[in-house]
Structure formats: structure tokens, C-alpha cells
Write a structure and sequence with these properties.
Blueprint: E1 2-12, E2 15-24, E3 30-35, E4 46-54, H1 66-70, E5 77-80, E6 96-99, H2 105-115, H3 124-138, E7 154-157, E8 171-174
Parallel strand pairs: 1-4, 5-6
Antiparallel strand pairs: 1-2, 2-3, 4-7, 7-8
Length: about 180
């Protein structure tokens, strides 16, 4: 069992939890989510991180056909950041779906540096949902970070937590 905690845990767009501990087994299955504030004593063997925890990033481009992706514009503000990085992305009333075209965190982090100014009109939670929650939902996978879900946990660091924005220093790493 591993236990990790951070300032914020992104479970879904409507459930962003403060000071939560996520307990996982050796197969990455979430066994428990519990608040650090509800315990009278600190949870033993818990790793604490500065940032936002989320599930893994999913690229629909790696799974769906070009025809299926073209249909995404009906329900989503789909942004393909894999080839040419957009310079100006505006909210359009539809959920943002941000596709890096890869699940490689090294490549995603390289793209994030250049994407940060274009994503300034979105909250960090919209951005996290756009590449974790909505792709999973679209692919009929378990989208919310809940007990019994198997997930690789990611840590979003270098985020402006006061204004809830991405910065040019934002980086993502896997929590292992």
C-alpha cells in the first residue's frame, strides 16, 4: 500500500478535494480516499506533495480514428496540441478536451511550456479535466478518481493555486 496526499485532489470537475490522502495497492487500485483533516493523528507512511493530484492523462488521438475525432467538435471544445501548438484558445461553452497526442509526460511537459499562455483563460481544473476526466468519459472508461479505480496518479506542480491557473512553470509528474 502507498499513501499520497497533496493540497488538492482532482476527482472530477465537480469534486476537487482539499488535503486528501489517496491510498493505492501495488496494482494502482485506489483502496481509500480520506481527509487528512478528519484524522486526529497524521496518517503513517504518507507522502505529501505540493500541487494537485489527478488521474493519468489520456490521448483520444491515440485511440480514436480521425473521423471520430472530427465529430468531437459537436460536444467538446477539442484542441489538438500534438502537431501545432495553438496560440489562442477561448472558452466556447463546451467542455475543453485537450489532446496532447501522447501519454508521455516528458513530451506533454515540453508542450505545456508553450501552451500555458494560450490556456490562460481556463482554470487549472478545466485543463486537468480536459486531459484526464473528459477523455476517459468519452472513451467509456471510469472518469472520476474514486475508490476501486485503477489509476496512475499524477502531480501537477508549479500551478498558481491562488488564481487556479496554469503557469509556464507547470510540470506534471507521475507519483510512484
Amino acid at each position: 500500500m502507498t499513501r499520497v496526499a497533496s493540497q488538492l485532489t482532482f476527482c472530477s470537475p465537480t469534486q476537487i478535494l482539499r488535503r486528501m490522502v489517496v491510498e493505492q495497492d501495488e496494482h494502482n487500485q485506489i483502496k481509500r480516499l480520506f481527509s487528512m483533516d478528519e484524522n486526529l493523528v497524521e496518517s503513517a507512511n504518507t507522502l505529501f506533495f505540493d500541487g494537485i493530484m489527478s488521474a493519468e492523462i489520456i490521448s483520444v488521438k491515440e485511440i480514436m480514428s480521425a473521423t471520430e475525432i472530427a465529430q468531437l467538435a459537436i460536444n467538446y471544445n477539442y484542441i489538438d496540441a500534438s502537431n501545432q501548438l495553438p496560440t489562442n484558445i477561448k472558452p466556447n461553452g463546451k467542455p475543453l478536451l485537450l489532446d496532447f497526442g501522447t501519454s508521455s509526460l516528458a513530451e506533454i511537459n515540453r508542450q505545456l511550456v508553450h501552451l500555458a499562455p494560450a490556456l490562460c483563460t481556463f482554470s487549472i481544473f478545466d485543463i486537468i479535466a480536459a486531459c484526464t476526466y473528459y477523455p476517459a468519459l468519452l472513451l467509456n472508461q471510469q472518469a472520476a478518481l474514486t475508490e476501486k479505480r485503477i489509476a496512475k496518479l499524477l502531480l501537477w506542480e508549479g500551478v498558481d493555486l491562488v488564481n487556479k491557473n496554469i503557469t509556464e512553470l507547470t510540470q506534471i509528474r507521475e507519483i510512484t
